[in-house]
Each structure stands twice: as C-alpha cells, then as structure tokens.
Amino acid sequence: MKDTHLNGESKDILAENIQQLKQLFPEVFAEDSIDFDKLKAVLGEYTDDDDERYNFTWWGKSRALRLAQTPSMGTLRPCKEESKDWDTTENLYIEGDNLEVLKLLQKSYHGKVKMIYIDPPYNTGNDFVYKDDYKDPLKNYLEMTGQVDEGGKKIGTNSEASGRYHTNWLNMMYPRLRLARNLLQDDGVIFISIDDNEVNNLRKICDEIFGEENHLGTFIIKSTPNARDYGHIGKMHEFAVFFAKNNEETETNLLPDETKKFKYTDERGSFNIHPLYNSNVAFTDKNRPNLFYLFYVNPQINSYDEFYEISLEPKSNWVEVFPPRSVKENVQFVWRWGKPKSSENLNKEIIAHKVGDEFRIVQKMRHSEKIIRSILEDKGVTSRRGTAEVEGIFGNKIFSFPKPLGLISSFVEIATDENSIVLDFFSGSCTSAHAVIRLNSNDRGKRKFIMVQLPELVDKKSEAYKEGYNDICDIGQERIRRAGDQIKSKLIEHNKIQNQQSTFLTREKVMSPNDLDIGFKVFKLDSSNLRKWNPDYDNVGASLLDAIENFVDGRDELDVVYEIMLKYGIDLTFPIDEYEIGGKKIHSICYGELMICLDNEITTNVANEIARLKEDLKPEVIRVVFKDNGFQDDSVKTNTKEILRNAGIDEIVSI
Question: Rounded to 10 degrees, what is the CA torsion of 402, 406, 408, 414?
C-alpha cells in the first residue's frame, strides 16, 4: 500500500489552475511546461502587451498571489472541551490564522459556502495587521501566537510611518480574498465591512478577484448617528462592499417591510399593483421576442376598482394592449413574464387596470417585503447598538466596536436559504454566528456557520481580561454559548405560550427547541499530526524516529482522523462512528465512505470487519486508511490488501 492518494498538503490551487488551462488549451503545453508564445497566438486579439493598460498593482502583489497558491502543511485539531454539543452540532469555530485555515478548508468546503461576511481590520493605524511569512506561514503563526517560541512574535499595528501603509494591508487582504472566492457557491455572495481608509483599494482588489461585473453594490451604513469629529468632517457612516461570485447565478431575498400598506383587496387578500412590463431599456422586442406579445382587454366589464378582464386570445371588441415604449429613448419595452406564465395567472395575479383612458397590464403584488436599500440608517445598524448587544449578553463592555446584530442579520436574510453555510473569517465577537442562530429560530432554518478567528490576546488592563477572557477567541465562543442559550430559552417560552393560546388546528408551525443547533465544534490550527508531513530536516534524530513512530508527540487518534478528513476533503461536521474488532478500533466517517484504523498489531480480522461494514452500510464510495507500521507483519499487510480488494475496495492507503 502506497501513499498515492493522500499527502500532508492542503489543496494545490496552482496545480488545479494549470490542469484547467491544459484542458482548455492542450496545444500550448510541451512536457508540462507552458509555451507562452503559443498561448498568446491562441488567444489572438484578447492578449495585450501594452505596459500602459489599466491595472492595479503594489509592492509584494506577486508574492501575495504565490502565498495564496502555496498549499498548507498544517492541520486543524479538534478541541472537544471548548466545544458545545460536539456530537450533534454542524457549526464550526476555528481558532487560527485565517490564511492557513482558508487553505485547509479548500478541499472540504470548495464551492459550498453560500455567504461570506467579514469585518477585517480597517487599517486605521490602531488595528492589527501582521505580515505573512512567505517562507513558512504556519511556523510564523505558531511563533506569533507563542506556540513555538516562548515569547512569540508581537502582533503589531500598521502605522502610516511604516512606509508601506496601504501595501501591508493589501498584501494581507489579497491572498485571503482569493482563497475565499474558491469556497463560494456559484450563486454565493460576500459582504465586506470597511471605512474610508481602504474602501477604494478594497473595491479594486475585489474587482480583480470577483470581477467588476459582479459588484452588486456598496452599502452606506449610518454607524455613528452623532458623528465622530475628524477635524474637518463629522463621520457618521461606514461601508459594506457587496460582491457575487457570479451575478447571473445570484438571487437575493426580500426583507420584511413592517410599514407596507395595501390599497386593494380581492378574494385572496390584500395587494398593490405593479406594471407587468420590464422598464429596462436593455430588453427589447428585438433581443427578447418571447417577451413581446399582445394582451386583450374587455372594456365593458369593470370588475372592481377600475380592473378589467384580460385574455391572450383576440376577441371581438376587446382592446389590444402592447407593452409601452420608453418616453425618453422611444425603445420598445417587453413584458417581465413569458406567455406561458401569463396564461397561468390571467385574471388571477395579472389583470388590466384603467388609468384615464389607457389600459395597463399589472401584476398584483401581495408580499409585505422590500428589497434591501443601499443606505442603511435605522437604529439597529449603529455601532452603539452592537456595543449594547454585547454588554447585554456579558453584563459588561468587553469588546470594542462589535458589529450590530441587525446589520449582519439583514445580510444573512437576503443572501441565504434555510440550508446555507455562512463563513466569517474575521469573526471577532461572533455577531455572524449569533445572526445565523437567531434567523434559524425565526424561520426554522438549518443554516450552518463557520467562524475563524486569530487568538489575538486582549489587553491585560481591559474589562475582558478582568472577566477571565485571555483572547478574542474566548470572547467569541462564549458569546455563541450565551446567545444560543438565550435564543433557545425564548423559543421554549414562545412555544409554551403558543400551545396554551391555540388549538391543534390553529397552531402555527414553530421550531422545536431541540431542532435548533446552538452548538459548535472547536478546531485549532496546528502543525501536522504526522511526522512525515511535518519534517524537521535539521534534526536527524527526529527523522530516524519517523520510521518508528508515525505521530507527533502529544497527538491522539482523533487529531489524526480529522486531519485525514481534511486531506480527503470531507466536511468536518460529518458523523464519526466507532466499531471495534479484537480490541482494534475502526473509525467510520460519513456512514462508511472513509474507514480509518490507526491501531498497532493489526491482523486480517480488521480487514474482514471493514468488508462486512461495507456490505452493511453500502456507501457510494469507500476509502480505507491504516497506519503504515500498524500491521502485525508484512504478510498481514499484503493479505489485508487482498481481502479489501476482493471486497471491492480499491483505495487503500497507509500513512
């Protein structure tokens, strides 16, 4: 058995990009090298050698790109003692440098995240920005957080005196955003909070990474109604940049509109009306002929409130109605609905409305919702509200400038469906996790969150430190615990009142408190658990030890199991079952899709048990992993391989 399907690296993004290029243009490759002259010839007029073409660059950009493409040799170690509801939760809290974590998530969560929200450092000169180590980013993280060198490297601030004030910030953000894009679904979106200091630079790197055409808008958020005095201007707002991975795939939801009033009523209920034609001049009868057709209106029968019967078939003395033309450009508009949909809704949800002497085809709008506005200015989005919310949870001011729950809740509500994954890799006080749990409790959703945060130490003079919180991760995790418990308690009380006040027939559908996931699994970034994936070339003794002992000192089986799951790209929240045969433990992940045995002195009994489990569990695919020196002898190793292959298991790996 050879380690042919598994190695210590995270997903090799550069190799994947090259493979995609090879599939598109095989003729430009010669012995696995790219002939750029041939590539230019193939691309023809789409190439540009002009040095004065529009582009956005800075010192270190190419190295930042390489950093995003360099696989990580680290792992995520499970931490049950800091988790909540470990056995049942599908939420994750990951402690570590988000650059390395994003790399490690590339296999397991590639294309699976519906929404990303981040509140990165604004680069005001007071918030932390650290330089990534291009040679060994994982070692840099371990030293910086004091896990390798006793003192650790100081996590500092990025002052304007550094000489590369904007450059340092760009080099931090650029690789992280490139990796984040890979995790988004094709219809996924990202929201990034920012202020004046870097909003222009953020737009430029997002235009490059996500595509300028995928910029859905930039929110202006009235975060400080009383304004902060900056000498010449009182600043009242921040921004949130809003991008899609693919604008053509993206759909967003409407928000509840509590102020909505309806003018009309029919047998189905209240409604307002909206013209059925599409007022976008880009869509005309020339490029959308299927949306250009006639309606016919009966002018004699006025049903109510100036509404008239309509048909798609011509009738004697009925009036023809086309979509109108634009007043300014005289462009022919088309309908928003095709003929089949209009046919299904004739005189139900679409009808004719008379204004003066003119008949108009209108749609009945029944929803009490509205599209999110680009200017957000209600009290629920202010910084003061965010601070008050955290104080209400902890009873003290232990976190500076947390994002308000109302703001993030609105983003989650418009961008996700009930089964979405929400990622926040600058998670801070975990407002994002709080928002996901609260929305799930409101609409019975099953959204999941992934929070990622560097364990930045809190000031020893702060209230947080006095309350016993050593770093930001302590605060974020505790907020999720407390907020989840509060939401669950309110849900229990609501259900109790609702059950007392209603009968079985009138009872509204509400979420059972037991169905609400308020837990999270904690994982911590660390070096690999396997010696051969964590080499020390300066230590000959350690290299010799590799042949004797596979695992790094202090690591247990569960550490290794989750590392293998990461390398195979398996969701870290998937269930792990344990089976035992002859004192040897078999870990079965995702109902038999991955089987792992890391014991010593393994006999063929283990292989026979795995074969039996395959028949019982019937997984669509199955992979089996053993510890390389865990077999009783070489003949057992060979026989194990044959038993498993005879059972239809071909992917057998030893580590």
Answer: -170
Domain extent at residue 306: 262-367
Q: Which residue is it, tokens 């601070």? A: 387
* Number of domains present in the structure of the chain: 4
The helix or strand, by DSSP H or E, that contains position 45, with its residue range, turns out to be none
User: What are 329's two structure tokens?
Assistant: 């450009």
Determine whether 324 is exposed, middle or buried from the number of CB atoms within 10 Å of its CB (0-12, 13-18, 19+): middle
The pTM of the full predicted model, rounded to 2 decimals, is 0.83
Q: Do residues 244 and 353 share a domain?
A: no
Shared domain for 619 and 585, answered yes or no, is yes
- 389: domain CATH number is 3.40.50.150
Q: In this structure, are 430 and 506 located in the same domain? A: yes
Which DSSP letter does residue 200 get? H
Tell me which residue has tokens 């509400």: 510
**Same structural domain, 648 and 609:** yes
Question: Which mean pLDDT values do the consecutive 10-residue runs of the chain (655 residues) have?
Answer: 61 76 74 72 65 82 92 95 97 96 96 98 73 73 69 65 82 96 98 96 97 96 91 94 95 88 89 93 91 94 78 95 92 94 95 91 90 95 96 94 97 98 98 98 96 94 94 97 97 84 56 92 96 58 51 94 95 95 95 95 96 95 93 94 94 91
Tokens of 465: 């430190």
Beta bridge partners of 321: 295
Residue 290 located in a structural domain: yes
Instruction: Say whether both 360 and 477 belong to one domain.
Output: no
* β-bridge pairing 29-30 and 33-34: antiparallel
pLDDT of residue 5: 54
Domain for residue 535, yes or no? no
